[in-house]
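#lab-general

N.A. 3:47 PM
ok so I finally got the sequence cleaned up, no stray characters, all 111 residues accounted for. can someone with queue access submit it? mine expired

B.Y. 3:52 PM
send it over

N.A. 3:53 PM
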Amino acid sequence: MKLMALLNGHPYLVRKALYLVASSQITTTELFNDASNTRGPFGDHLRRLLSLLHDRQELKQALLQVISQNICEDQQIFWQLRGIGLVRSSGQEVIPRCQLYADYFREHLRG
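B.Y. 4:20 PM
back already:
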């Protein structure tokens, strides 16, 4: 249940998490404690996504707005963020694809 809350069923991330734990490369405690860490179990994936936002200030600002307020005022930017796989719509709200993304990008886009 905790894994589902963190990854929202993201196929690649769930598979990676299960593989790392099943192969005893990390413990479940380490998985959850280090999930949003740049050097953690998903670090390569998170850094790749962050690199897609490099020099795209409008996407960075919009993603922070989604994380903090669950809105994206520009429909075209929403579609770009959705295309990257960072956000999804839920009714009238725009929300991060998963809690892992919200945690990681909240920390790494503010600096």
